Amino acid sequence: SSHEHKLNFKRSKEACLSYIQDAMLQKQWKRAAEFLTFYVESLEKDYSREPIGPSEMIWRIGTEILCHHSRSSTKEFNCFMEQMKTLGVKRYLKVCLEHVFHLLCNGQIDEAYQNLSLAESWRFGEQTALQDKEMKLIQAYRGLLDYYSWSKQKNILLEHGKCLDGFADLSVEQEMHSCFRKAAMNLKEIIKIPGVWDLFVKCYVDLLEFYGDHNEACQVLNEYAYNSKFPANPNAHVYLYQFLKRQGESKKSLISALKILHDIVPSHELMIDFNTMLQKSKKRKKRRLGLEVIFAALDYAGWKENVKAWSCLARQVKQIVISGKHLDWIKQEWNSRKDWWPAFHFSRYLAKRNWQENKSLSYEKALVAGILLGKDCKYFKYVSHQGCKAQVKRFRMLKKFVNRHNPVYLRISG
């Protein structure tokens, strides 16, 4: 019967897709390509309407296979993508974008730019308005390639300036300014839309800085970092901080930018800079925050062997111990960590490994361990013993310092 025929056809089609999936998961690209060929042939008899049309299925599977198949060539991939563009009007711009990404990954910059220009001129009735977001992405990536061209022309001019006593090739300069105008126009438009536009923002700010428009650059970065319509993005605050630093802005502005970054990503590498600035502050509140920042960073495994971080913590802890003031700061930070930091940072195994691999790291950690856990701490005992045995002066001084201030451990431990 007709119903039974459709049912069997559906089952065979689903089985074919299952075989394709299995082959792709096992990276059997030749086998996957063979099954895809059968699948395409079977679709010629399929008149059903599915949520995801067959053309999208072929596009996505075919692209993946061609990207990994040993016999695949750039020419075949380009031919396949051109065919996919004609199969589905609704996906035309998405296919164009994927084609462009592939060309860029293979270093075909000019071909990618040409494809973006063609896609930008594409029109198809109501579909043009429906695909407004994709069109903006097309324009944005064209702006990115204009920036790339601008950067190349800029480097040529700079090289001429060095080699030819400031002589600038007028045609190169004109081309450079033309690329600047096109890049700036498209990049400026895309970063107005709420989203994560890191690369586009960086390129646009670079253009503005080169031509001395620092106010506009600052405004763009502040908008990107603080506009509530944009998703929380640590990089936005990193770019703002780096820009402010390049401009020689006040420490207050730099601290403000890094404070938000700390709240979002307490393990960010810039927390070293943040801690250093806070420790140098005359305000008690900021120095307190500095201690909190470095403790929080060392909660993460990626920081376990960071000598700078341990040095920052050791220096601040030592200052507090010597002055006898603000021991409550250390106590507050230690209370929430005393149950897990000893095993995480200060085991005998780590003491041995740190001593073998990095003497400076073991010294800084031993100082912190001795203050937080006392002179009987396994980490401190092992490292100080090895240091004294090796007759290294600073380890003898370390041992004396911790023994002398052992009562501090009793106060911290409560």
From TrEMBL:
Q: Which Pfam families match?
A: TAF1_subA
Return the PANTHER family for the record.
TATA BOX-BINDING PROTEIN ASSOCIATED FACTOR RNA POLYMERASE I SUBUNIT A, TATA BOX-BINDING PROTEIN-ASSOCIATED FACTOR RNA POLYMERASE I SUBUNIT A
**Which domain of life, per UniProt?**
Eukaryota
Q: Which species is this record about? A: Tachuris rubrigastra
Report what the protein is called.
TAF1A polymerase
GO CC term, one of those recorded? RNA polymerase I transcription regulator complex
| InterPro entries assigned | SL1/TIF-IB_Component, TAF1A
Question: What is any one GO biological process for this UniProt entry?
Answer: transcription by RNA polymerase I
